[in-house]
Amino acid sequence: MAKLSVFNSVSMDGYFTGVNGDxxxxxxxxxxxxxxxxxxxxxxxxxxxxxxxxxxxMMASFWPTxxxxxxxxxxxxHMNSLPKFVFSRSMKTSxxxxxxxxxxxxxxxxxxxxxxxxEDLVILGSGSIVSQLTGAGLIDSYQxxxxxxxxxxGRTLFEGVTTRPVLKPTKTRTFGNxxxxxxxxxx
Length: 187
Known about the structure:
The chain has helices spanning 33-44, 53-60, 66-71, 73-81, 106-116, 127-135; strands at 4-11, 15-17, 49-52, 84-87, 99-102, 121-124, 141-147, 155-156, 168-174, 180-185.
């Protein structure tokens, strides 16, 4: 069975998005060579991507553009070539290459994807999906980028989770720009 992991940025005070969905803070620290190398390497790995509609719309408005290809050609090519699944009850199709729209029960659909996928799956952003799948026990690992910014308000990643999953820390890495990456797994 394929594993499901999450990759998300969080602020020092635990928000994954600021007020009104603002994500600019996640890119507010200096983008040094060490961080750029990590992001590029991280983006080259992984299998199919899972998104909620809001995160998907944001990604689809950038990665297939000439600006993305110019700013970060390797990541853009990889994002455009990977299979993508977007969970939405309102969206029927998408022009972004290799996209499948799923509108059924989230937990059932993800269980089926985990059973059928030959590669591990990755959720990028998509807070409501992360919280629902965490509550259902379907996420196997988490990778958080703690950005040295205090937002004071926003949305937490695990809103609505009523279970108390205990995670096992597996690795940390601190970067010169102040970002700290934390890896956790479900025991």
